[in-house]
Design goal:
- The structure holds 2 protein chains of 2 kinds.
- Chain A is α/β, with parallel strands linked by helices.
- In chain A, 45% of the residues lie in helices and 23% in strands.
- Chain A has 14 helices and 17 strands.
- A 5-stranded parallel sheet of chain A has the order 2-1-3-4-5, sandwiched between helices.
- The longest helix of chain A is centred in the N-terminal third of the chain and has 52 residues.
- Chain B is an alpha/beta fold.
- Chain B has 4 helices and 7 strands; from the N terminus they run βββαβαβαββα.
- In chain B, the strands form 2 sheets. A 5-stranded parallel sheet of chain B has the order 4-3-5-6-7, sandwiched between helices.
- In chain B, helix 2 runs parallel beside helix 3.
Chain lengths: 521, 129
Amino acid sequence: MTVHEPVNILMVDDQPGKLLSYEAILDPLRENLLKANSGRQALEQLLKTDIAVVLMDVSMPDIDGFQLADMIREHPRFQKTAIIFISAVHLSDLDQLKGYERGAVDYVSVPVIPELLRAKVSVFAELYRKTQQLENLNRELERRVAERTEELRESESQFRSLANSIPQLAWMADPGGSISWFNQRWYDYTGSSFEQVRGDGWSSLIHPDDVTRVARGIENSWKLREPWEDTFQIRGKGGNYRWFLSRALPIHDVNGKIVRWFGTNTDITERKQAEEALIKSERLAAMGRLAGIIAHEINNPLEAISNAFYLLRDHPSLDEEARYYSKLAEQELSRVAHITKQTLSFYRESQEPVQVCFSDLLDNIIELQSRRLKLSNIVFEKRFQTQGMIQGYPGELKQVFLNIIANAVQAMPSGGKLRIRLAKSSVRTNGIEGVRVSVYDNGAGIPPEHANRIFEPFFSTKQMKGTGLGLWISKGIIQKYQGTIRFRSLSFQGYAATCFSVFIPASFATKPGDANAAVVA
Amino acid sequence: MNATLKCGNPRKRVILCVDDEENPLMLRKRVLQKAGYHVLTARSGTEGLQIAATEDVDLVLSDYLMPSMNGAEFAARIKALYPQIPVMLLSGVNEIPPNSYLADAFLSKIEGPDNLCQYVAEFLKSKSL
């Protein structure tokens, strides 16, 4: 601000002549010159306008100069207003001092030397001007600070609403790694309070298997000032753990100094489960292939041995004991054959799928089981609501339902109820139509600890009787049809009920008018 | 499972058995002989074709998995030369091998001797009708 802005100079004297002479002396300064004839008038002026310098005569009739100076100083607005006393009487050093004590700034004695007065007023006017400018600058600065603060507050609040809307659990830590903020999702998921998790309190929510590694990793990251990433389990409010992919990034200021850390935890439980399921199914498929290769290699010598015992069966040279052993060997061989047959079971008796009638297929299986149903005292109930026509391979489909029905029958050695239901059905999600076969029994039931394993190969509860391949193979066959096989087993106070439900899409079903298609059971 | 009598002329049905492995071939031959068939054996498709050229064969029963010429190739050659001779393929796998449609029938080895004899008898019966 180089522009000369005139400031107000108040001249106080009871003699108008003196005021005129001061005016003449100060005129070249190009300031605003205000006049007052008395102390009272001077105070009025002071209250009305901003005064840079007060020039006053010490001896005035009503209020003298010193009294006026006292009154001016009492007012907070004027405590720093410059005062120049003009005194006609000779001033001792003591009097001068008295003036300064009252905060006065300078003295001019009479006769007034115009240059001296002008110089002194000029200095104070300039001082006032500079002070004003400084104050203006300060005010501007304060205004800007206030603006920036508001902007920051706004951006902070925007950041928080963003951080609360993301699906991740988010947090912030100070440069040393003490966590000072979590988003709402964190609290919603963990059910914790800020007091419980602030600082490093969050570690109490990390799974015991992971907590040491996680704490060490993140501390290392604070120290190295490098981003951090890990996968671990965090406890939810219900006490169950879920898997999270956690990342922390340092936030730097313009000088590259870390001001805070920002972290997110993304729920990857479903992804992890899918990965595990994939690994498991790949492992099972590999096992299946291996089992198939072994079974195939066994089949060739098995045929030769079976034929050898077949020839031995009625050989005239055998006595009764040898014949008995030979018969035992044949029985055991048929078990080996059964195992390899189950393992390699994708036996397709024809190249092209044919129309399969499920009601005939199921009737056929029931007939095969009828003797066992009677022996085990099992009541059979059938509810067929459709013929259930689909395109497929009857042999393998028969194998699936023979497995399921035989399992149900074997689960009820001392009686029970077997119910088979056949109905049209469709997949709710995609509307694909097909048939659903449900097989109910009220036998022993499937204990929950076996529930995840019954479709695994070589899992059997029948010890010597089963190969542990039946349901695994059934599932494989149903999957080839893009169908589903599920079961539900409930047990309550000694009563149990199990239901296997198989859905097979009829997407290859022949058109309704195609009545001449062969029906194979 | 006796030899079929045809036009009052008692003649045993002739089966040509082909397998590269000696023991299984010999045992299969004995099982079929016991069932009343006249059995000729060959250790390869090439040898089988030579026999078919000179003998009056009613049925060819060949293993699928053989070196140099597999069962399907052998069946195709037989069919090309002697379309009237039915060919049955026998295999250790349960799934029908590729190209086995070139034969008339397919049977898994693990069906066992009783089933083999029954299947052969039924097959010959159906072919003679």
